[in-house]
Amino acid sequence: MSEKITNYNPFDYFDTQAEINSFLLDCYNDDDSNTFVTALGHLARHHGMTEMAKETGLSRGSLYKTFNGKTKPQWETIVKLLKALNVKLTVAV
User: Which of 2, 6, 31, 62 could be 58's S-S partner, Cβ–Cβ 3.0 to 4.6 Å?
Assistant: First the structure.
């Protein structure tokens, strides 16, 4: 019997917005900036790339390319995704 292996998405296992926020904050605070970008990619996939494309005005292909791990996304793309995902960043000094 063959088992199908699926991609792991941590956002499939969070029950509350507080858990999502905590995870995103931990990823943002990681020394590797790719950790946060990867987390955003998982969150975007969790919401559906077609929906994210509609919300951001970016193509699905462009979104997949953003999160393929081979390119560094532009800040403008990250900002569009944050807005579409209703993620608010705050600055503290």
Answer: 62
Residue 55 lies in a domain: yes
Q: What local confidence, expressed as pLDDT, does residue 5 receive?
A: 73
Range of 68's domain?
A: 16-84
pLDDT in tens, 35-63: 999 999 999 999 999 999 999 999 999 99
Q: Would residue 60 count as lying in a domain?
A: yes
Residues ≥6 apart with Cβ < 8 Å to 39: 10, 23, 24, 27, 28
Residue 75, both tokens: 């800040």
Nearest to 46 by CA among 74, 17, 73, 85: 85
Looking at the structure of the chain, the number of domains it has is: 1
Burial of 4 (0-12, 13-18, 19+ CB in 10 A): exposed
Name the pTM for this structure. Answer: 0.83
